[in-house]
Amino acid sequence: MARPKKRFKELLEEIDRTPWGPAEQALVGEAVALAQEIGDEQLEYQARMRQTASANMGGLTDVMLNSFAWCLAHHDADPKRFPLDIENGAADLMWQFKWMAASLRGSPAFSAEQVAAVLDDMEAHYVRAGLGMSGVLTARFEDAWDSGRFDEAEALRVQLETTPRDDYSHCDACGRSQFAGFFAETDRDDEAIRLVEEMLEGGFSCGEEPEHALSRVLLPYLRAGRPEEARSAHLRSYRLAKDNPDNLVIVANNIVFAAVTGNEARALALVERHLPWLAHDQLNVDGHFTALSAIGFALDRVTEAGHGDARVRGADSPALTPFFGAHEGPWTASELAAAANAAAERIGAAFDERDGTDAHAARLARTRALSTQRWDVPIRSDAFAAAPVAPEPQDAEGWYDRAVALGSYGSETDALAAAARATELADAEKRARLLGLRIGALVSLERWDEASALLPERAAALAAAGLTEQVAVEGRLGLALFGRYDEADVAALEREWADAVDLPAWTRGDLALTLASARLRADDPEGALQLAEHAARAFGEAGDDRLVAGTTLLAIMTLLRSGDLERASALVDGMLADETLNPGQRARVLETRARIRGGAGELADGAADADAAAGILASLGGSQSLASTQMLAGALWEDAGDAEQAVLRYRSGVRLIEQEGGDVAGARYRLGRAMLHAGYAAEAAELLGDVLRAEEEAEVPAGSRAVTVGMLARSLAASEEFGQAVGAFGYAADLHEQAEEPADQALMLTEQAKILARFGEGDDARGLLEQAAELVRPTEATGAIVEVLHNLGQAYGGTADERAFGLFDEVATLARENDAPWLLADVTDSRGRALVEFGRIDEAISALLTAADGFAGIGDAGSAGGSELFAARTLVNAERLDDAVPLYRSVLDRSSEIPPLRQVGALELGDVLEKLGRAGEAAQVRALIED
User: Fold this and answer.
1) What is the pTM of this model?
2) Residues 6 or more apart whose Cβ sits within 8 Å of residue 930
């Protein structure tokens, strides 16, 4: 059995270095099975001890109970062969005992007597092992609190505080979190907040901390009038908890917070995201109670906000039927609210019957009492989907018009949906046109069989309309005339066009337009444009304004492909002046002009066009088309520098894409990026974390994931989650290395170094920057080279290392070669600051003033003032006060439109003048602060 035992040892080593989660659980399961196959109970004990801890962290209560019972029985039978501690650095058997009573208490299927028996058995084992009683008292406190025996719980809490801590006491994080939760439920908000803030200030953390503690003080923060702290706690708590189903109660607390703070759309999104967690652990019934209470409350608030008819995605999963009951079709928010409330009441009643108290009924009532409360704490992560505002057509003619408009825009799916409602059209020509639209849409979607099946019906409608020549042509060409461009199809079109001179005008136009599209696809824009002109003349002769416009659109696409923006723009403007365009055509032309303007740098105008197109599509009920146009508008607003407007469009687009299907991860990435730029860093970090998880599950290439991780890292840094940001930048660097992208890898290492330097880890920061410099120098990525070398120079300069100046020289040379005056001023400023570290004051002042002039020359008064302010401070530190005065005055002159800089300059100049005995002047300068 040497090989299986070697594999077993390898498994244990891999388990011990793998983070909690599905991968680690699979390894543990393999280890238990292998030990059983080997037939060695001591090895199985090693594996099962790990399995108990793994199941506890993963919310697999049944696995945990069975594994613990097996281990306890074997330990009791032979403590030497099966010791309390397997010395793997994880919880020993007596620590695991603390989880057992909580697990039994979490389901009303276990009686109060069974829970009490476990607690008594735990105490007996602790006594027999000579252990302290802190762990036992903690378990008894939790039992009394959760069961609603509050006086007993308070007495145990006080006893715990006077009981000496030992190896089985809760850690600093968990102990504070637990008492904070108890204080919050017993109306001692200040005490709850104090404990959690102690935990955060001390940097204490554990498996589910600080996220659990933060969730427990969300409402206390609100009641204390501290909404910003509440908002920050919510975003951090949820971001840390959202990926582990065992954190169901933490997420429930966050759902309630979203619902009472005016973030009903976010509450709905969280409910949808975490509904599957209800079915994760069948024995965590107390968690189900808390979650169902939160879901019912949140969806009631969604209903009150006017969105009771919103569909709750995922609620119709068969796995959730035991909670909500059977239901026909999708659940709406109002329906699911009622079902969740009923389920919470049912479960709460079962607990109260077991415990002989009304604790769960009181908790449910406490949550529902929040219905009269509202705090405004805006969070910009979610919004209700802006449903198309179009009133539904009332007859077949109305649906026909809508289908034609959506088809003219080019939204096949939306057009097909509308066409399906345009039944019983009396006009044969309209029936034929609608069938042609349907066939063309199906061909575009490559649904060949469905398209072919409609050809006979189309032929009959054409014949009824008297269009016999068109029937004959379509009989010869089939789907080729509807956009199927196989080689044989194109050849048939060419032959038909060669003999088309005697065909009716409309049919000639149809042939020319179809063949023009084929030539454009074959990269023959000149041929396409010639045919488009033929088609426009033919449709004009036939009096079909709609297809004249459609042909002009094709001509515009052809001109854009050829790079003839002037002629394309002229055609676009002409079309928009045409009052006969149908709404779909107008939306398409507006969207086209939006793209043209965006490419020309007219970003705000382009965004306005995209917004106008989106408004039209909303009026047509085009969900899929509206989603793509909203994303276009978001991109244009983002490029225009208006991230706030971009967030609004992206958010609407994301919600529509989630409903209709599409690249959800890509859309969410754009939204997260815009949110970061708009100042919503914590919300961005949460969203980008979801994007990353989706990309990893989809095994997206390393380079693409690296971009997402880099944006996530920037969001974490902007949220002041610096520890996580350092790790994320490091992960991004690793991914760029896998993708063989050394310049990007170097930039991520540089960002990592910046954070380390900020917290005094200078040696580590310089090491990373030196590594980055080695990576980036051989590349041709000038921007990355400049960023890395400049930062490395600053790091060397800060420690008076002469190597700084050679690096500054390299950066300055690149700045001159690439006509980058701001960069030249910036590196000159860095040179001046480095010279100060060497004590070369006159050279430093000269460099700093040169930098100030450079910044001023390109209109950056703030940076110019910053350079002069540093120079002035340098002179003050060198006791050259008289020399500093004119520099401070220059700072004041430059900062008339920069109040913070002006105030700092005035304050410091006043102090300098006071030291020089010029009290009157000092008073005059300080008066500027008042102004």
Assistant:
1) 0.82
2) none
